[in-house]
Amino acid sequence: MAEEVVDVVIVGSGPAGLTAAIYASRANLNPVLYEGFQSGGMPGGQLMTTGKVENFPGFPEGIDGQMLMTNMREQAVRLGTRMVMEDVEEVKVGAWPFRIITTSEECCEARSVIIATGATANRLPLDSEQRLWGKGVSACAVCDGALPVFRNRPLAVIGGGDSAVEEAVHLTQFGSKIYMIHRRDELRASKIMQKRAIEHPKIEILWNKIVDEFLGDERLEMLRLRDVQTGEGSEIEVAGAFEAIGHTPNTSILKGGLETTEMGYILTQPFSTATSVPGVFAAGDVQDSKYRQAITAAGSGCMAAMEAEKWLAELP
Ligand SMILES: Cc1cc2nc3c(=O)[nH]c(=O)nc-3n(C[C@H](O)[C@H](O)[C@H](O)COP(=O)(O)OP(=O)(O)OC[C@H]3O[C@@H](n4cnc5c(N)ncnc54)[C@H](O)[C@@H]3O)c2cc1C
């Protein structure tokens, strides 16, 4: 793309970016959307890596994650979004109009920018984890926990923070027993969350343990654990393992140009997608450490497009 100044550039093609694109297109803002290629996941975002999505409204039987994202993309294109399948390397927010630099070194300038680059779930660096990813191994209990394959079966959550406890408690509705596997002898979660986990009759905390291997042929069947203090190995039977070891928001393209929270999420104003730089908006998981769902990402994408439209309309 040659140097040109557009009204809105959207970075990211998950539910947040594509919903922003749908709204911005309908507002005649002629958005350009950088879909990504390799950085921070794949075009279409995290739902491209999952099977059936059962909690996105409008699909009584659920919908395949890839199908949902393909449909959103088609909708955005039909309404007039210009798609560019490239990674953005930098968004320069220090001067206006903002400059967007991509891997092909082509550049465009934008009067407003919507950052919707998501947050990547941290994963255990094990070959067996990769092999069984989506086959019993997941990073989202709220998303996948209710699937029939996990019902009345023993399940595991790996981690010891607030999210890990939330995931474990959520899973107690479905699993027969929930193991929490934690590498320390104390949970990092807040006191109240610790109490919930420790006192729950279905949750058993396995202290000082790390996962050495995910075992199973077609699907996850067992976890091989190691005690970090004694070195002793053990195995537990589980039908599902949910990693809750944090997320890394994809913000490196901003080179520190926007304010972030302590955890690295883009800081937005309450009930808004406005960031610390006027004209730059953030939507979806990149600014949400709490809900991290497709529908909340889509909702904030809608907000970002409407806020960008208003911001542009008020420019002198
Ligand atoms: C295995 C799994 C299953 C899930 N299941 C469900 C479910 O059933 N229901 C549910 O509601 N939620 C589910 N989620 C959560 C849901 O996928 C996320 O909350 C949602 O996708 C967040 O949307 P997003 O648009 O903010 O970010 P993402 O979907 O992460 O999309 C980010 C986008 O940014 C792009 N990007 C990143 N860096 C760059 C760059 N430098 N340049 C250009 N593009 C870039 C990526 O390519 C991607 O297109 C699941 C998540 C996972 C991992």
Query: Radius of gyration from the CA trace?
Result: 21 Å
Any idea what the shape is? elongated
Bound molecules: flavin-adenine dinucleotide
Tell me the CATH superfamily of the largest domain.
FAD/NAD(P)-binding domain
**Strand runs, count:** 19
Number of helices: 7
Helical content (DSSP H or I, runs of 4+):
10-25%
- Residue-averaged pLDDT, rounded? 94
Topology order in helix (H) and strand (E) letters: EHEEEHEEEEEHEHEHEHEEEEEEEH
User: Number of folding domains?
Assistant: 2
Task: Measure the end-to-end span.
Answer: 27 Å
Largest sheet: 7 strands, mixed
| Class derived from helix and strand content | alpha/beta
CATH fold group of the largest domain = FAD/NAD(P)-binding domain
Helix/strand layout:
Blueprint: E1 5-11, H1 15-26, E2 32-34, E3 52-53, E4 63-64, H2 65-78, E5 82-84, E6 88-92, E7 98-102, E8 107-115, E9 119-121, H3 127-131, E10 137-138, H4 141-144, E11 154-158, H5 162-171, E12 177-181, H6 191-199, E13 203-206, E14 209-215, E15 222-227, E16 233-237, E17 240-243, E18 247-249, E19 280-282, H7 294-313
Helix pairs in contact: 1-2, 1-7, 5-6
Residues 11-17, 34-36, 39-47, 49-50, 53, 55-56, 87-88, 116-118, 121, 138-140, 143-144, 250, 253, 284-285, 292-295, 297 line the site of flavin-adenine dinucleotide (FAD).
